[in-house]
Amino acid sequence: MSSSSLFTDPAILSLVSASLVLLLAQFYTNLVINRSLSPKMKAWVVVKNGGPSEALALKEVGEETTTSLPEPKGADVLIRVSHAALNPADLVFMRHIPTWVPFRRQAIPAMDFAGQIIALGPKAAAAPSHAAKPLVVGTRVAGCLNVGLIATGHGALVEYLTVSSELVARQPKSFGDSNAKAGPPSAGLLGCAGQTAHLAATDARAEAAFGVAEPRVLINGASGAVGSLLIQISKARGAYVAAVCSGKNADFVRRLGADLVIDYTKHDPLPAYLASTGEFHGANAFNLIFDCVGDQSLFLKSPAYLTPRGALLCIVGKGPMAVPYTLRNRLVPSILGGTPRAYRLLGMSPSGERARAVAKWADEGGLIKEMTIDSEYDMADVKKAYEKQATKRAVGKIVIRVQGDKKVDR
Ligand SMILES: NC(=O)c1ccc[n+]([C@@H]2O[C@H](COP(=O)([O-])OP(=O)(O)OC[C@H]3O[C@@H](n4cnc5c(N)ncnc54)[C@H](OP(=O)(O)O)[C@@H]3O)[C@@H](O)[C@H]2O)c1
């Protein structure tokens, strides 16, 4: 990843401001209080900025002097982490958030977690968001840690995690009744990828597009974690789905429901191909484009293949250009050379509420049939797993077995 990709997507833009605001508060509440009460436990730590092979070390974090696990406070829960899922953004954080600042001396990466609750703070069981079905010891949950937590080093690649009950949701029943089966897909679906697919698919412009008769949707980056979910959701919403991926993933995206596969390696550059082939003009134009790759030309050329009332929803900014591109795409009128189509750059901010909505889609709505797992790695092999993530060739989620499905002892 190039050094210019500090602002790869909106999550990283918000990271900069959120981390500054949270720096002092997190230093005292999370590092000084929580960590000093933690016993030694295994975690991956970012020891220097760079790629996974140089940046990461498997360490024992916590205190020699303590043997008992921390008692969660307020609405927090203590989770025995069974699995963590990796995300492209982890690599950006690893490379760019400085390790030399004091609060990141034991900076644990990874946003997505799945596991079992082993203790609850006094307000967690009665938290309003879990009122319908209160959390208890043993509840299997999953979720995504926010950028403030990641910025302050409180990631998921650790054996035990203390997190607000507001960030967790129950693992979908449809994924099975043990952490061995349900942990890997839950970490991905209730984590960053699932919550981002939910954000995009429930955006007002997406809802409007799904509401037309015979909606037509184009998904760029369709074989990735977010794209593979958006195929399923779009199909279930009644859309004709054109999926852009390389030829080797054609069968995979067809299996998830794609009606048409466009191999971008054969049609390069993709926007010029879409504009020049007669296939996507007039009545065959798309009502909605999900861009999970971040190709600016896909928007600039979109009047040739996106209906006038259609929209392009992008989840990937382009480095420091994300803000100027967004301003141009949204504000410049066509009379001054702007593109006469709706554009939105989406940034996902995780919440338990969104995670619960995604779990419901898997359990009840039929909108999501699977969270594809690209590969599973043991805790010892996290560097290899991140190296695979860095290739940008994962098909679905890369998952780490942190503690797996062992019996919970406390
Ligand atoms: N805005 C947000 O809040 C937010 C949230 C989550 C993710 N993101 C961003 O969204 C992007 C996708 O995330 P993800 O988790 O789905 O990534 P991912 O699973 O790592 O995506 C890997 C997939 O990308 C495909 N791909 C790579 N280059 C491509 C290209 N030029 N054209 C089409 N497909 C291509 C690969 O397919 P082939 O091998 O077939 O090329 C591969 O299957 C990442 O950049 C991530 O940082 C943003």
From TrEMBL:
<feature type="transmembrane region" description="Helical">
    <location>
        <begin position="12"/>
        <end position="33"/>
    </location>
</feature>
<keyword id="KW-0472">Membrane</keyword>
<dbReference type="InterPro" id="IPR036291">
    <property type="entry name" value="NAD(P)-bd_dom_sf"/>
</dbReference>
<feature type="domain" description="Enoyl reductase (ER)">
    <location>
        <begin position="51"/>
        <end position="400"/>
    </location>
</feature>
<dbReference type="InterPro" id="IPR011032">
    <property type="entry name" value="GroES-like_sf"/>
</dbReference>
<dbReference type="InterPro" id="IPR052733">
    <property type="entry name" value="Chloroplast_QOR"/>
</dbReference>
<protein>
    <submittedName>
        <fullName>Zinc ion binding</fullName>
        <ecNumber>1.3.1.105</ecNumber>
    </submittedName>
</protein>
<keyword id="KW-1133">Transmembrane helix</keyword>
<dbReference type="InterPro" id="IPR020843">
    <property type="entry name" value="ER"/>
</dbReference>
<dbReference type="GO" id="GO:0102978">
    <property type="term" value="F:furaneol oxidoreductase activity"/>
</dbReference>
<dbReference type="Pfam" id="PF13602">
    <property type="entry name" value="ADH_zinc_N_2"/>
</dbReference>
<dbReference type="Pfam" id="PF08240">
    <property type="entry name" value="ADH_N"/>
</dbReference>
<keyword id="KW-0560">Oxidoreductase</keyword>
<dbReference type="InterPro" id="IPR013154">
    <property type="entry name" value="ADH-like_N"/>
</dbReference>
<keyword id="KW-0812">Transmembrane</keyword>
